[in-house]
Amino acid sequence: MNHFPRVKFYPILLIMVASALKMCAAPKGCQFVNSYDVTWNSPGTNENDSMPIGNGDIAANVWTEQNGDIVMLLAKADAWTELGKLVKLGRLRIHLEPNPFTGTGSFSQSLQLENGCIEFRNDGNVMRVWVDANHPVMHITASLKRSASLQAKLELWRTAHPLRGRSPDKGMMYEVGSDSMPVDFEADIVLAPGANSITWCHFNTNSIYPHVLEQEHLESLISKYPDPLFHRCFGATLRGPGLTSVDGRTLASAAPGRDFKLDLIVLTETNVESVQDWQSQLDALVKRVETVRLPAAWRAHERWWQDFWNRSWVHVTGDPDAERVSQGYAMQRYMMACSSRGAYPVKFNGGLFTVGHDMPDGMDSSTTNHNPDFRAWGNCYWNQNNRLPYWPLIASGDYDLLQPWFNMYLNDLPLEKDRTQIYYHHDGASYPETMFFFGLPSLHDFGWNNPSNTIRSTWQRYHIQGSLEVISQMLDDYDNTGDTNFAREAIVPFADAIVTYYAEHYPRDADGKIRIVPAQSLETYQLVAVNPTPDIAGLRSVIPLLLQLPSDSSTVQQRDAWMKTFDALPPIPLGRTTAEGKIPPMGKGDPKGMVTILPAEEYGRTHNSENPELYVAFPYRLYGVGRPGLQLARTAYAARRSPQKTCWGQDGTESSVLGLTDEAQQSVISEFSNFGDERFPWFWKPAHDWIPDLDNGGSGMTTLQQMLMQCDGRHIILLPAWPKDWSAHFKLHAPYQTIVEGSVQNGMITSLRVTPKARKKDVIIWNPSNTE
User: Fold this and answer.
1) Phi, psi of 229 (to 5 degrees)
2) Do residues 183 and 376 touch, judged by C-beta distance below 8 A?
3) Does 595 have pLDDT greater than 80?
4) DSSP 513-549
5) Is the pLDDT confidence value at 376 over 70?
6) Which residues have a Cβ under 8 Å from the Cβ of 178 and sit 6 or more positions away?
7) Which end of the chain offers a freer environment for a tag, N or C, measured as fewer CB atoms within 10 Å?
8) Distance, C-alpha 111 to centroid of its chain
């Protein structure tokens, strides 16, 4: 990523790649990913024994039970109920009689990453489950040695769900809070079965959306923006040749057979007038899907996954920790591919792979006993958590997986600008840290019957810097792809609104500098912070990059305004550490302490375990290897109050930027060893969030990438924090549409291929023995 002003590298610290360095063809990613496949040799028991599959929009947890049943918990990226809750589509149970998947010792259940499918095998019997990478359908096929009868049964738990009093669907619904919710949670609808199909859906006949706007004093906007929840309908149809409908929830084979095929076709529609309208559109979708023959669909599906794995890879060897890191990296990337190509971004707290079981009415779900729709920390997006699964997708070249994340913020921009005008009577936009997918704060944070425009929650009240980080991610995306349309139509409108907000919202001091107050420095320093470091670092990082975009992507007036805002920014706050070498409390440093970066110019006591002062390293990379002030940033890292190496802990992402190899290695091992109680260990343990903790895996991916490669303008810095005892093959994406493939052994690059070849001259090998 480019930075302003341009920094010159110090030759004494860096060794240019020798022109004679051997060029060789790197291996394909699929050669590595086969080694990460997972096979279990015994059936499971319940939902905690599941494996993940998906096509980016439709996903499923798939498991077996002791009786041989194969069960699938179904999800879709846009299955939002009337309460703004992301829920499952339902559960599908496949039963064969006699059951060929019990009774012998040859059973296997395999997740095949290279083609995104799960296969069950036992004594020559095979069942395959896959979600078509190119169409909205999940295919289930069975090839049996002996004839059996098949039954496919739909299982639903949302049958009657008023939310007054206790309810399984009420647990952890932070967004809406108390018993005073004006909207009930409707039951699912099972439609009349077809001859060989069953169909069901959830239809929102009401919506929390207008109540959110009314509670947040935005009722004047109700008619301006269509309700994104009202008359949203999502569901599926299950069908297959040789099957008949027993009732609205059950398909069965008309006669015993050896070969079976089931297709689950899924659809979400918004603003439909009725369930019948949705079913008409579903019928049309079914006709389109069924024109694609299964062998052709499978070949295209395999090609998609092959292209995905060949797009990028990091394969690490050297010791068991290295192999664990390597497999964890691939698993996190796989789960993102399974769940981030739909209409909305993946949720940090479980994504589409949360699980649960049926619960009795009159009992709230909890973290230890919950229904399948439960997720701790609710259904709003939390920027500081959700950013982490998306950062590594830039270096991995997974730009398609980034789009739902960017689109959510872009689609919400008009509402955010109107909200700013109504609340503060000036231009620009800000986004709350925790928000519904349509851009407004959760009512839990804003406060029911709050008479003011100010968010009540002290954790979130002034927490708006996350939008600067989204700009930074967009700019990195642009640096890599060179997509000028994206710069003009997305980055500039979004960034201009955010920068304008900072320019117009805050007062100026006697020197004409912006004084960011009232403010907070992330969640750790609340209410009393002045000039928080993350906000200043974000603005100091993104504004120069906006000025470097092609001139036809912005106006002269916009560029002049950005430059004036940049000139008015306060400096990064500096102070001195305590005698113990830590960030001083309340800004009271020791005159004999070392100069360090502070979390804000003024700040109070801590409330959380973040290190805001280190946002200068990650995400904003104002300090790092090859840049002035590296030792200052390393001092701040050593002085940090809150070391943490898992979940959204910042040790890995920050230490790798600062070239602290041992710290980065320890962190990435911790992140990719953060296993919980699930049989599929890469459903990361919820250190603070929920299962799978996708920000944990995203942080691990970013750490590993930054250990191998960091970019600054045209410079591509290799091995800035790479341990000598690990070897690696890698293929990563860099600015100016550049791809870097290589191998490293014993701390040395042993092969390298840079595409285009002209970019090879910009590659630099970092010498870790120097700092300044």
Assistant:
1) -110, -35
2) no
3) yes
4) -B---SEEETTTEEEEEEEEHHHHHHHHHHHHHHHTS
5) yes
6) 448
7) C
8) 22
Half-sphere exposure of 217 (CA within 13 A, CB side): 15
Type of residue at 112: Q
Cα-Cα-Cα-Cα dihedral sign, residues 388, 394, 395, 399 = positive
Cβ burial, residue 277 (10 Å; 0-12/13-18/19+)? middle
Q: Looking at this protein, which amino acid is placed at residue 179?
A: D
pLDDT band at 361 (very low <50, low <70, confident <90, very high): confident
Edge-to-edge strand list for the sheet holding 748-755: 313-317, 727-734, 738-745, 748-755
Q: Which two tokens stand for residue 641?
A: 């109050």
Is 80 exceeded by the pLDDT of residue 5? no
Non-local CB neighbours of 522 within 8 Å, separated by 6+ positions: 384, 463, 465, 532, 534, 599, 608, 610, 612
Burial of 512 (0-12, 13-18, 19+ CB in 10 A): exposed
Query: Rounded to whole angstroms, what are the CA distances from 290 to 108, 229, 286, 412, 734?
Result: 30, 30, 6, 36, 40
pLDDT-derived band of residue 772, with 50, 70 and 90 as boundaries?
Answer: very low
Mean pLDDT of the chain: 93
pLDDT-based confidence at residue 11 (cuts at 50, 70, 90): very low
**244 sits in which H/E element:** strand 243-247
Peptide bond into 5 cis (omega under 30): yes
Return d(Cα 201, Cα 267) in angstroms, integer. Answer: 9
Which residue, chain included where needed, has tokens 């703004």? 84
Rounded CA-CA distance 234/278 in Å is 8
User: Alpha-carbon distance 203 to 81, whole Å?
Assistant: 8
Q: Computed over its alpha carbons, how large is the radius of gyration of the chain?
A: 27
What 3-state class would DSSP assign to 586? helix
Helix 399-424 vs helix 383-390: crossing angle, to nearest 10: 160
Q: What mean pLDDT is predicted for residues 93-99? A: 96
Please, what is the angle between helix 492-505 and helix 466-481, to 10°? 150
Long-range (24+ apart) CB contacts under 8 A made by 610-613 are 610/384, 610/522, 610/523, 610/524, 610/642, 610/650, 611/524, 611/640, 611/641, 611/642, 611/650, 611/654, 612/521, 612/522, 612/524, 612/525, 612/532, 612/533, 612/534, 613/533, 613/573, 613/583, 613/640
Q: Tens of pLDDT along 182-212?
A: 787 889 999 999 999 999 999 999 999 999 9
pLDDT tens column, 490-538 = 999 999 999 999 999 999 999 999 999 999 999 999 999 999 999 999 9
Distance (Å, rounded) from C-alpha 654 to C-alpha 658?
6
